[in-house]
Write a structure and sequence with these properties.
This protein has two domains: about 5-150, Gcn5-related N-acetyltransferase (GNAT) (Aminopeptidase, 3-Layer(aba) Sandwich); about 165-320, 2-Layer Sandwich (Endonuclease, Chain A). It is built from 13 helices and 15 strands. It has helices spanning about 15-30, 35, 40-45, 85-100, 115-120, 145-150, 175-185, 200-205, 205-220, 230-235, 240-245, 295-310, 315-320, and strands at about 5-10, 45-50, 55-65, 70-75, 105-110, 125, 130, 135-140, 165-170, 190-195, 225-230, 250-255, 270, 275-280, 285-290. Strands 1, 2, 3, 4, 5, 6, 7 and 8 form an eight-stranded mixed beta sheet that branches. The longest helix has 17 residues, at about 295-310. The chain starts with a strand and ends with a helix.
Length: about 325
């Protein structure tokens, strides 16, 4: 089935967009009209899916906050056209539209649609809640540009921790950071990070710190371990992760390796017991990520634990003023 997606501003949008939303949300799902139409419509881009004969069949909208995060909403396909791949085509179009603009995509999914969004690269990031009397969960995609390149992949749930069995290769920093953020954003309890230094460009980013903070606060048994060779750059310049660690000392700990004992020559990050981001050396953003790689994670966890057990805390970081 050929589906074309057209984009409009709210002021120039054809009446089909209004009528499809009214039929699906107000009439079918019983959403109160005063909740369906809001001020966001004025700032959003609106998308209309039409068939080859120009029959309008579905809608969605996309808007941004601070130019960094794109928000997808009001996705609806007319009942008589569901199950034909139109929703998938619309979502892929929105991801492609966002890939060059936003580092993150968010949406509020009705509970029955969670699996649909997971197949496109989104993961759940909230507890269930009710909106307009319907059970929802917040979902996000932290790597829309990478997901957009995988539209022909047969992997049903890309970048879903514990389920995506493909290996994601990277050769540049942007892709590596997207994979790191996607991994940390889904970790439920454990994050182990090993590197030569806590490089500011990699780990001193606002988004990364927010994700680590969310993990540290999400579970009472959260365990975030930072294992590095050298702490001098952290002493000379403030680092968001170090400041977070000092606020949450029971959840986040940093140690320096013992140079007298064997250590790994490749940096890596482990998320829970499934996820790994592995670099080929300390100096280049080249390596791979696996979201369901429990065998490799087990091996690297054992190596990390040996280095951790022989490591020591940083006295200079401990003595820094808050």
């Amino acid at each position: 089935m050929t589906v074309r997606i057209r984009k409009y501003s709210w002021q120039l949008a054809p009446g089909h967009i209004w009528s499809i939303r009214k039929k699906v949300f107000v009439e079918e799902q019983k959403v109160p009209p005063e909740l369906e139409w809001d001020h966001t419509d004025e700032i959003a881009d609106h998308f209309l899916a039409v068939l080859s004969d120009n029959t309008p069949v579905g809608v969605a909208r996309l808007f941004s906050t601070l130019g960094e995060t794109g928000h997808i909403g009001r996705m609806a396909i007319l009942p008589e056209f569901r199950g034909r791949g139109i929703g998938e085509a619309m979502l892929q179009h929105l991801i492609a539209e966002s890939a060059g603009q936003y580092q993150e995509l968010k949406l509020s999914a009705q509970q029955h649609a969670v699996a649909f969004y997971q197949r496109a690269g989104f993961h759940v990031c909230s507890e269930p809640y009710y909106d307009a009397g319907i059970l929802h969960l917040d979902m996000r995609c932290l790597a829309p540009a990478l997901i957009e390149t995988q539209t022909d992949s047969k992997q049903p749930r890309p970048m879903l921790l514990g389920e995506d069995t493909q290996t994601w290769l990277f050769e540049d920093e942007r892709n590596m950071l997207d994979l790191m953020d996607s991994m940390v954003g889904q970790a439920g309890q454990r994050l182990w990070l090993y590197d030569k230094v806590l490089d500011h460009d990699l780990y001193d980013r606002q988004k990364f710190t927010e994700l680590v903070s969310g993990l540290a606060r999400r579970h009472r048994l959260s365990e975030i371990r930072l294992l590095i060779h050298d702490d001098q750059s952290l002493i000379k310049r403030r680092h968001q992760l170090v400041e977070l660690m000092r606020r949450l000392p029971s959840r986040i700990e940093l140690r320096l390796i013992s140079r007298a004992n064997p250590h790994e020559d490749q940096p890596f990050m482990l998320a829970d017991r499934q996820g790994v981001v592995y670099r080929h050396d300390f100096t280049r953003p080249s390596g791979f990520a696996g979201f369901a790689d429990s065998g490799r994670v087990k091996i690297l966890s054992e190596r990390f634990q040996r280095m951790w057990d022989t490591g020591h805390n940083s006295r200079e970081l401990r003595d820094l003023p808050l």
